[in-house]
Sequence to fold (453 residues):
Amino acid sequence: MQDSSFRDSSLQEDSVSKAIALTVNGSPVSTTVDVRTLLVQLLRDQLALTGTHVGCDTSQCGACTVHVDGEAVKACAVLAVQADGGEVLTIEGLARGGALHPMQDAFREHHGLQCGFCTPGMILAGMDMVRRHGHELDERTVRTELEGNICRCTGYHNIVRAIIAGARAMAAGPAVAAAE
Amino acid sequence: MFAFAYHRPRSLADAVGLLGAHEEAKPLAGGQTLIATLKQRLAAPGDLVDLAAVPELRAIALEDGRLVVGAMARHADVAASPLVRASLPALAALAGLIGDPAVRNRGTLGGSLANNDPSADYPAACLALAATIVTNRREIAAADFFTGLFETVLEPDEIVVRVMFPLGGEGAYAKFPNPASRYAMAGVFVWRGAGGSGEELVRVAVTGAGQGGVFRWAEAEAALAADFSAAALEPLGLPAEDMIEDIHGSGAYRAHLAGVMARRAVTRMAGAG
Fold:
């Protein structure tokens, strides 16, 4: 990433740190960050939650999509200090023990991925669609809603099918046991 | 990013005080433009004053026959607000076209106006609807607010608090988004209603196309005042040399797109009426 790869000693001396406390995947996290730290850098570099990916780093591709206070955001376009006091949900926080989240399971069932790079963002974006549009999503809605999540492998067909099925499965409630 | 200090004041007065106390301070609203700008080192504010914890900036209400939208109302809030959808459906629809869902969960009305990106959507709505922008200091007519590319009349320690949109008439916004960024390659907001003395008025505001940022298209307004139809716009053309020319499209292409978007907006209104 452009910011973390940049090292300039004069600027390092100027850097300002701030203590923040937030909840990540249900667990409290208290840490101190350089205020320039992006939320995605906090997750990946400090908390080792590398399931959140950095694709474009310009908030276009959606690979870094996570939830903050229940809503999908692009973690490359949010400062960690802005999430102070908030609740963050990443792809690592979805499964319960051995049971995948229904949206995850739908992606597996419908093969809504090839290389998998965009998948965490797709799943969290799909869950945000359910929050706003309910459990019965039509194809047109899902395709429109995916305007901020880019996949270069699949042509989207199976992603759309997975999100429609996952939205319905979320209505059923309990997570589906993963096939191990 | 260049180094900065971060503040999260809990009142508007504190936010204004922080902006006044630090020479190179900048307000942070939703950050969907500012953070990208910081990452590219195109801005170097010494202090960021985050407005997220300032209460009262998010409210959406009807007051004295006007729709009043708080500066920190996010695009998602405006798009989904039953109040906006009922009173100014074209504004709700416009908000739902900005960026993508994750961007709309963060980006704000006030941030968009203060930034005045030449391809932003809200400036077109403010001009076409003759909105009034209320800051901590004064009320500014939209016609006086936007002064050029990324330029407004805002002073360094002036914060947009809310925007007042007059109700009445009907409007529509048609946009041709850039397929990657979702910014407008051309976006046209058309409004038709009654003026101060009851005369019929048409306003046409174009964003995404003009080299000087958002502008009113006077010829289109005159043509539509005489004959409110897409056909009335057919003979008109914007000067290609005044349009933005970049890797995404030539000036001539944008001039053409603006005409198409204007006709789409008019057709939608004629169809609804």
Remarks:
- Chain A is about 35% helix and 15% strand.
- The two ends of chain A are 35 Å apart (CA to CA).
- Residues 2-90 of chain A form a domain with the Ubiquitin-like (UB roll) fold (CATH 3.10.20.30).
